[in-house]
Amino acid sequence: MSTTPVTAFAGVIDTIAHLVEAVEEERWSAPTPCTDWNVQQLVDHLVAGQHTFAVAMGAQPPLPAPDPAPEALKKTFRTSAAALVAAFEGPGALERTVRAPIGEVPGAVALHLQTIEHLMHGWDLARAIGQKALFDEATVERETEFARGLTAQLPSGPGAPFAPSRTAPEDAPALDRLAALLGRDITE
Fold first, then answer.
1. CATH number of the domain at 5-158, out of 3.40.50.150, 3.40.190.10, 1.20.120.450, 2.30.30.240?
2. By CB atoms within 10 Å of each CB, which of 8, 33, 99, 140 scores lowest?
């Protein structure tokens, strides 16, 4: 079976959903490598981004439930993720121009942005809960190449969407190389 960018994204989402479902009650307040958020805040951020991008792609997903209880958040993650995947699968979705946080972009670029966002925060989540994020290596490599071009075009410094890139050993796993590119300390 051939993998399209949308099916690859759906695989990334599914991997993260399994990580979210694996969060134990005492870990929701644990810090993450994304220093602005603990585990619950990170998952909330992903859910909000899924909703925002689904709407930008022209879908009318249900609003995320305001219930902060972990069991509700686990369900909300799956529901909002499914709405976003469905929005990217829609006719003409990847060709349509959409409004993203970095400006107007084709739907295909929005898909890259969300894939990178989910890969990175999936890495954050896995580290925070002591799990491994087992993403498809080809997907991670493809998105790392896209991220290299993207980071070269984005502003740096205070308020920038990513911390300055760090170096990673050439033999580091693909996901760690992406994390370093996006400013994460992979040695922790």
1. 1.20.120.450
2. 99
